[in-house]
Amino acid sequence: MAEQILLSSGLQHKSLPENYKRPESQRPKLDEVIRDSNIPIIDLSLSNKAHIISQITHACQSHGFFQVVNHDIQKECLEKVVEMAKEFFRLPVEDKMELYSDDPTKKIRLSTSFNVRKETVHNWRDYLRLYCYPLEDYVPDWPSKPPLFKDVVSSYCREVRKLGFQLLGLISLSLGLEEGYIKQVLGEQEQHMAMNYYPPCPEPDLTYGLPAHTDPNALTILLQDQEVAGLQVLREGKWIAVNPVPNALVINIGDQLQALSNGRYKSVWHRAIVNSGKERVSVASFLCPCSTTIIGPPKKLTEDGSPAIYRNYTYDEYYKRFWSRNLDQEHCLELFKSQ
Ligand SMILES: O=C(O)CCC(=O)C(=O)O
Ligand SMILES: [Fe+2]
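Above: inputs. Below: predicted complex with 2-oxoglutaric acid.
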């Protein structure tokens, strides 16, 4: 029964259920994680735009991830969204079950783990997935509890979209393209959100909140819990903990920007680990190409004779392929390489 597998059902677990335990070779090896490094931090308020752009180039090539500070989203707005996510997952299980579905094609749904229909081992996470653009099409069907949910989350969605477009402009410039290039080729972009909830876990060494994956979309903007770390990014074969920075947002290149940049920028493996002491939430906003958009490298990035690394495909084709798989398989882009 679905309410039994929902981790936020209120049931306390004294030990990790068997179907969450990873075999020894797949465990997170938490003692090997690098904790005293961080991903690049970029101050968007600097007046020297050329400097910001060169920091973006470097971050996208070296880490595929960066944090932005002094962006235009108010601290109060960020705090309210995190609080709203926590309040949502604290609702009685009967209220939450109205939204439960493990069908990945549903546009508004509460689920657990990643893809319970495909996977054999589950992940220590519940998540609320919401389509967010155009807001007026989706907000009426969003959760009506907690009472402020729709207001708070839709304000945040508007702000995140603006920030996302600002970043796509900077990323275009950093690739030597016109500022509006990426935004324009991605078409009328969809915007999805995952509110992730990771309750305290009795045996965090044996499982994941989310195992290593790359994001299938174009750009991800992640609001991390300020209190509890959990995100880790793979760099040169080692996992680096992304320590929360006050009022920062974590940005990562998704698979579509790796393809569009003809492999210059990387959609990097990342994962969320859990802990035994504290619940953690994160709110991921995904900017996604319009489903009919054809993804391929701009002329400017192949005119020097560099071959196109990936074949052209529509985002619709990519997205269906992504969700037909389990999360921690090979990089989904590998399946779209040019012959
Ligand atoms: O919870 C996190 O820090 C990571 C979330 C994430 O990677 C995702 O939702 O795709
Ligand atoms: Fe992710």
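The two ends are 45 Å apart (CA to CA).
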